[in-house]
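Sample A.
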Amino acid sequence: MVDAPGTPTRARPGVVTISSWLLILFAVIQVLNLILTLSTIGTVRDVLRDAYRGTAAEQAGDLAYAFGIGLGVLTLLLAVGMVVLALLNNRGRNGARITTWVLGGILICCTGGSLVNNAAGGLTSGGNTGDMPSGEEIQRRLNDALPSWYGPLTTLLGVLGLLALLAALILLALPKANEFFRKPQPAWEPPLPGTPYPGQPYPGQPYPGGQPTPGQPYPGYPPAPGQAAGEWSPPPPDQPRPDRPDVDQPGRREDGTQEPGARPPSAS
C-alpha cells in the first residue's frame, strides 16, 4: 500500500527501529539453530538407530532425521519472513505489524514450550517399557555422542531468541509506534499558478449557466458606443435580456416569480 500524493513524510521512532533490529536478531538466531541442527542430525539418527534396534520403534532414527530436515526448512522460512516483516515495519505498514504480532505470538509459544520441555527432560527420567530403552538411556547416549557444548549453546540461543522476539513485540505496541503506524492524512496543497479553483472555468472558457466571461458582452447585445469589440459592458437598463426575457421585467426575481408589492406590467 502506497501513501497518497501529498502525504507528509513520517519520522520513524526509535522504538520501531529497535524492534526491527530485534526481529532480525531473532532471524539470525534461528539460522544458527538451523546450522547446529543440520550439523548434528546425522549423529542423532545413528544414536536412535542403535538404541531402538530390534524393537518396535526401530524406525525412530529415520523419523527423527526426516523431522529434523522439515523443521530446518520451516526455520529458514520463518527467518526470511521475520526479516521481511522487519523491513515492512520500518516503512510503517500496519498490516506487517499485525502479522508480526500473530506470528511472533505463535513462535513465542513454540520456543518457550521447547525450552521448558528440554529442561524437564533433563531433570526427569523414565523406566524401561518392555524392550524399549528408557528416556534416561536415550539422553545419556545423546550426551555421549554430541559435543559437550551443544546442549548449553542451543539453550542459550533459545533464551536469547525468546527475549529478542518478546521485546520486539512489546516495542511495536508502544504509543510512539502506534502514532507511526496510524494512517496519515494527506496534507493540503495550494493550486499551482494558472490552475482554477474548483467550480471555475479555465481562462477563455464560458462560466457555467451561460454567464459571459468577464470582459465579454452578454449574448445578443452589441458593444456600447466607444467600446471595442470584446470589451465588457453591463446590459442596458430596463431592457429585457434576449435569453431571459422574464427575468428583466420590473418586479421579477431571478427565478421568474413576482416580487411582493410590485405591480405587474400593464398590457398596452
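Sample B.
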Amino acid sequence: MKKISDFGKAFILNFNPQKFPSYQTEIEIEAPEKEQKQYLLKEPWWKRPFDIGFSIFAIAVSLPVMIPIAIAIKLTDGGSIFYTQKRPGLNGKEFTVYKFRTMYNNNEEILENYLKSNQKAYEEWKKYRKLKDFDPRVTPIGKFLRKTSLDELPQFLNVLKGDMSIVGPRPYISCEFDEYCIPKHIQKKLFSLKPGITGLWQVTKRNEAEFEERIKIDIEYIENQSFWLDIKIILKTIKVMFTGKGAY
C-alpha cells in the first residue's frame, strides 16, 4: 500500500469542493469522504478567444527566431527538431505536447546511468524532478533554449489545437502523480483546467519549487484565475525569459 504524503493528507483534511472554478465540461469529483458529486464546469468566455489571438500573434512574431532554432537543433546531432510527449490535459484526457528538442536522443539511458553513479544527483532528481547544476541529457543549444524558455514556443500550436491555454497549470506527466502519491481528487482539480504554456508556478518559484509545492501553486491559480491575473503572469513570464531566473 502506498503511503500518502503530508501534502496529500493536508489536502484531504482541508479540501473544499465548493472552491472549484466554473468550466465547460461536467466531470465527477472524488471528495475526501468518498462521496461522488457532479460539478458543471464552464470555461470563462474570454479564455479561448484570448488564447487564439495571442497564439497567432506570438507565432507570427517568433517565426524569425524559430527557424534558426530548428536548424541549430538539426545540426547538433541530426535528430528530430521537435520533442513530443503524451500529457494529461483537461479532464485527464491525454494530448501530445510539442517542444523544441533540448536533449540527446538517448536521454533516458544517459539519465539512468548518471543517477546510478551520482547519489547527490539522484536525491536532487527525486526532490525536484530536475537537475539544476548539471544535466548530462541536455545538448549545448538545449541549455540556451531552456534558460530562455524558447523551447516551449511550439506549444502555441497546442493552444491553437485547443489542448492548452496560454496560462494554466503545468502540463504534468502521469507517472508523477503515482510517484508522489497525489490523491485522485487533487489530480481531478488540476485537470479541471487546460494546462498552460506558462503559469503562476513558472513566474514565482519556477524550478526552485519542490514537486508538491508546484501543485499547491497551480491550485492557487485555478481557484483565483481571472483575466487580469493571466495578463500579470504573461508580463512576468516575459521578464523571466530575459533574466533566466530559476531555469535549468
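B remarks: The chain is about 50% helix and 10% strand. Confidence is low (pLDDT under 50) at residues 1-5, 7-13, 15-40.
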